[in-house]
Amino acid sequence: VQLQASGGGLVQAGDSLRLSCAASGRTSSGYFLGWFRQAPGKEREFVATISWSGGNSAYADSVKGRFAISRDKNTVYLQMNSLKPEDTAVYYCAAGYSYGLGSPNGNAYNYWGQGTQVTVSS
Protein backbone atom coordinates (compact mmCIF):
# COMPACT_ATOMS: atom_id res chain seq x y z
CA VAL A 1 0.00 0.00 0.00
CA GLN A 2 1.27 3.43 -0.91
CA LEU A 3 0.00 6.44 1.03
CA GLN A 4 0.01 10.02 -0.20
CA ALA A 5 -0.87 12.72 2.33
CA SER A 6 -1.86 16.27 1.48
CA GLY A 7 -3.66 19.29 2.88
CA GLY A 8 -1.15 20.70 5.32
CA GLY A 9 -0.41 24.39 5.56
CA LEU A 10 0.02 27.46 7.71
CA VAL A 11 -3.04 28.62 9.63
CA GLN A 12 -3.85 30.75 12.65
CA ALA A 13 -4.99 29.48 16.01
CA GLY A 14 -8.70 28.71 15.94
CA ASP A 15 -8.74 27.95 12.23
CA SER A 16 -9.63 24.64 10.60
CA LEU A 17 -7.74 22.43 8.19
CA ARG A 18 -8.51 19.13 6.50
CA LEU A 19 -5.84 16.59 5.72
CA SER A 20 -6.30 13.86 3.15
CA CYS A 21 -4.42 10.64 2.56
CA ALA A 22 -5.01 8.49 -0.49
CA ALA A 23 -4.08 4.82 -0.42
CA SER A 24 -3.15 2.91 -3.55
CA GLY A 25 -1.74 -0.47 -4.40
CA ARG A 26 -2.88 -3.52 -2.43
CA THR A 27 -6.12 -1.97 -1.17
CA SER A 28 -8.44 -4.94 -1.70
CA SER A 29 -7.54 -6.41 1.70
CA GLY A 30 -9.04 -4.89 4.82
CA TYR A 31 -6.87 -2.32 6.52
CA PHE A 32 -7.25 0.31 9.18
CA LEU A 33 -5.90 3.81 8.76
CA GLY A 34 -4.47 6.24 11.22
CA TRP A 35 -2.91 9.64 11.66
CA PHE A 36 0.18 10.35 13.71
CA ARG A 37 2.16 13.54 14.18
CA GLN A 38 5.64 14.55 15.16
CA ALA A 39 6.61 17.99 16.40
CA PRO A 40 10.24 19.21 16.29
CA GLY A 41 12.25 17.65 19.08
CA LYS A 42 9.40 15.40 20.15
CA GLU A 43 8.51 11.77 19.62
CA ARG A 44 5.87 10.71 17.16
CA GLU A 45 2.44 10.59 18.75
CA PHE A 46 -0.86 8.99 17.88
CA VAL A 47 -3.66 11.28 16.72
CA ALA A 48 -6.55 9.17 15.44
CA THR A 49 -7.43 5.86 13.81
CA ILE A 50 -10.38 4.46 11.89
CA SER A 51 -11.39 0.91 11.06
CA TRP A 52 -11.70 -0.69 7.63
CA SER A 53 -15.47 -0.15 7.58
CA GLY A 54 -15.19 3.38 8.90
CA GLY A 55 -17.63 2.52 11.65
CA ASN A 56 -15.15 2.70 14.50
CA SER A 57 -12.65 5.38 15.38
CA ALA A 58 -10.47 6.44 18.27
CA TYR A 59 -8.64 9.64 19.19
CA ALA A 60 -5.85 10.89 21.36
CA ASP A 61 -7.15 12.84 24.34
CA SER A 62 -5.35 15.95 23.11
CA VAL A 63 -7.48 16.14 19.95
CA LYS A 64 -10.75 14.61 21.10
CA GLY A 65 -13.66 16.92 20.33
CA ARG A 66 -11.60 19.01 17.90
CA PHE A 67 -10.47 16.52 15.26
CA ALA A 68 -12.56 14.08 13.27
CA ILE A 69 -11.27 11.15 11.23
CA SER A 70 -13.28 9.70 8.37
CA ARG A 71 -12.66 7.57 5.32
CA ASP A 72 -14.13 7.14 1.89
CA LYS A 73 -12.98 3.71 0.75
CA ASN A 74 -9.26 4.24 0.15
CA THR A 75 -8.96 7.84 1.29
CA VAL A 76 -8.76 8.91 4.92
CA TYR A 77 -9.43 12.44 6.09
CA LEU A 78 -8.56 14.32 9.24
CA GLN A 79 -10.76 17.34 9.85
CA MET A 80 -8.98 19.56 12.34
CA ASN A 81 -10.97 22.33 14.01
CA SER A 82 -10.07 24.86 16.69
CA LEU A 83 -6.40 24.41 15.91
CA LYS A 84 -3.86 25.35 18.55
CA PRO A 85 -0.15 26.20 18.23
CA GLU A 86 0.63 22.92 19.97
CA ASP A 87 -0.94 21.09 17.02
CA THR A 88 2.01 22.21 14.91
CA ALA A 89 3.74 19.10 13.58
CA VAL A 90 4.35 16.94 10.57
CA TYR A 91 1.31 14.74 10.19
CA TYR A 92 1.68 11.21 8.86
CA CYS A 93 -0.97 8.79 7.69
CA ALA A 94 -0.42 5.09 8.18
CA ALA A 95 -2.13 1.81 7.32
CA GLY A 96 -2.19 -1.62 8.92
CA TYR A 97 -3.79 -4.84 7.69
CA SER A 98 -6.78 -5.73 9.80
CA TYR A 99 -10.54 -5.34 9.60
CA GLY A 100 -10.58 -4.04 13.15
CA LEU A 101 -9.69 -0.70 14.65
CA GLY A 102 -6.13 0.49 14.52
CA SER A 103 -3.87 0.83 17.52
CA PRO A 104 -2.37 3.97 19.07
CA ASN A 105 0.94 2.09 18.79
CA GLY A 106 2.73 3.00 15.61
CA ASN A 107 4.32 -0.44 15.47
CA ALA A 108 0.92 -1.87 14.50
CA TYR A 109 1.05 -0.07 11.17
CA ASN A 110 2.67 -1.58 8.11
CA TYR A 111 2.80 1.41 5.79
CA TRP A 112 3.46 5.11 6.23
CA GLY A 113 2.94 8.17 4.07
CA GLN A 114 5.49 10.89 3.53
CA GLY A 115 4.02 13.43 5.95
CA THR A 116 2.47 16.87 5.53
CA GLN A 117 3.41 19.93 7.58
CA VAL A 118 0.80 21.69 9.68
CA THR A 119 1.83 24.96 11.28
CA VAL A 120 -0.50 26.85 13.60
CA SER A 121 0.49 30.39 14.50
CA SER A 122 -0.70 32.09 17.67
Rg, please?
13 Å
Which percent range fits the helix content? under 10%
Please state the structural category: mainly beta
In round numbers, the mean pLDDT is 94
What about the largest sheet?
A: 7 strands, mixed
Please, could you describe this protein's structure?
- The protein is mainly β and 122 residues long.
- It has strands at residues 2-6, 9-12, 17-24, 31-38, 45-50, 57-59, 67-72, 75-80, 89-97, 111-112, 116-121.
- 0% of the residues lie in helices and 52% in strands.
- Strands 2, 4, 5, 6, 9, 10 and 11 form a seven-stranded mixed β-sheet that branches.
- It is globular.
Give the SSE map.
Blueprint: E1 2-6, E2 9-12, E3 17-24, E4 31-38, E5 45-50, E6 57-59, E7 67-72, E8 75-80, E9 89-97, E10 111-112, E11 116-121
Parallel strand pairs: 2-11
Antiparallel strand pairs: 1-3, 3-8, 4-5, 4-9, 5-6, 7-8, 9-10, 9-11
Brief summary of the model shown:
The protein is mainly β and 122 residues long.
